[in-house]
Amino acid sequence: MDNPADLRYTASHEWLRDNGDGTVTVGITFHAQDALGELVYVDLPQPGRQVSAGEACVVVESTKAASDVYAPVDGEVLEVNAALADAPQTVNESPFAEGWLFRLRPSQPGQAAGLLSAADYSAGPGAA
Question: Could you give the count of Cα atoms lying within 13 Å of 118 in the half-sphere of its Cβ?
Fold first, then answer.
């Protein structure tokens, strides 16, 4: 699966979408969910939580292993994808759309510009 060009990426396989309203949506890449295997549980952060870039703030568990998901930028968690509590496999089925993890209000505008482009991610950490 191609990595959408409108997203920014981290070396630890998170993606970030600018929602155009001062918020961003965060999820894990196709590469990450593929490496993990079928997800059976997702532990999401509480809305209102302040996170720092690189901080573990989500745990995803699969039939293979549990893995941390890291905040790609500093900010406040505004909303989580509550549907994942009953259907964690949505992350596997639609990692760039319905399988999003949380929405965040970044505390440092422009911080996302330091993340990887789709081309850089695909050539580096996201290389198959």
Answer: 10
